[in-house]
Specification:
This protein is mainly α and 495 residues long. It folds into three domains: 2-46 and 356-494; 66-109, no CATH class; 126-346, no CATH class. 69% of the residues lie in helices and 0% in strands. It is built from 25 helices and no strands. The longest helix is centred in the N-terminal third of the chain and has 35 residues, at 107-141. The relative contact order is 0.13.
Amino acid sequence: MEILILVVFVLGYLGIAFEHPLKVDKSAFALLAGTICWAVFVIGSHGEIPQHTMHEYTAITTPSSELAQEDVVVVEGMEDVEHVSKEELVDALKEPSGWRKGMEYKEHNFFEFRLLHHLQEIASILFFLLGAMTIVELIDAHEGFAVITDRIKTTNQVKLIWIIAILTFFFSAALDNLTTSIVMISLLRKLIAEKQTRWLFAGVVIIAANAGGAWSPIGDVTTTMLWIGGQLSTGVIISHLFLPSLVCLLVPLLILSFRLKGDVARPIKSEGVEHYMNPTTSVERNLVFTVGVLGLLFVPIFKTVTHLPPFMGMMMSLGFLWLLTEVLHRNKNREEKHHLSVISVLQKIDVSSVLFFLGILLAVAALQEVGHLLVMADWLRVSLENIFAIDLAIGLLSAIVDNVPLVAASMGMYDIEPVATDAWSANFVQDGIFWQFLAYCAGTGGSALIIGSAAGVAVMGLEKIDFIWYMKRISLLAIAGYFAGAAVYYVMYML
């Protein structure tokens, strides 16, 4: 069963990679890989719960002699299942898996619960993505990005790619790499007409977004995990990771600076009839752009204050911007304001890219559930006893599978040491070398492949970038930057 799931994942991966030669949309392969992996996991398990997840569903450890007759217990992590009485618990604990029978708990409920557990995280990402895409499209409908594009006068490829990369780098730290990628792709569509050139710039956007997210506690989900988990503090993340992350971006930019020549062709601006019937005013453009960007900046603040998932802050920002645009255009007739409404903008959202995201995350969740990711992380721990090598390997592996479960597995394998008792344990104290370098590697390593990061997946979906094209044109640049930044960190803190 474990091997079959791996085979299905690899076949789906190959289908995504060869999307253009096969002339089949990658979303189909992603959805098939995700759903088939879960089906194989359920059918191949024969109702047996994998040992590595058993600890999450162990019955309460209170001795039965200490339970009163009327006491009831619940399986940890399964608050929605039936309560069981003392007698049922005693009978259940007489055999290895008897607690499930004692609760009249059917095996398929376990797999359903695990799927819903992962779906909770996946849905948070998808709603976040939908909210961000809608806000960006709404700003675009009001020509709000003209505030930036009108100020970028150069068409020189080298100058333009540096401007775009630096903007992305700092936007990603202030927002997050996923939102920034969506915003920057919208900008690129207004600055570059030729598809292949725009793809090259989009590849640099992925590298810059991931590099910018690595040195900010809110810029990348893995850095945020380590920040919230207490492994890293805000000051250390920024001060220790800024320079390595910057070098990770500068090296690809310097290489491209020697390759790129000439100017880019700006797209011919075209507006529909409704634009001339009722153009947006300067006040409307600036207001929607300002409120939209502030709404995106509000998301990490909302998360920090409330500790609710980021998509809640994104939806709040979308709701406020929706209300604002409705009020702005309330005196216009339906035909005039239709293209400026959220209802119209929602029709422009690329749903196939959202479904692609869903399929990829489901497939990775299946690999995590069957234990492949834990085995991989444990193998790294045993085989590579060097902190530098372990983190480097995790970063490169994050280009193949999602960096979130890899970082989660690393956090589970190594505890935060309260006090450094020797040279090895010193790496694992709060703000220790291991956690710092893990944040850099997991944040930037995913740029090596286009589906190795949330930013890459989003850009791939929006621009329809070919997997093989990215490997040929961008992957080596990303890897060069990754190792250059790692070398800078090594010289600064590990020599």
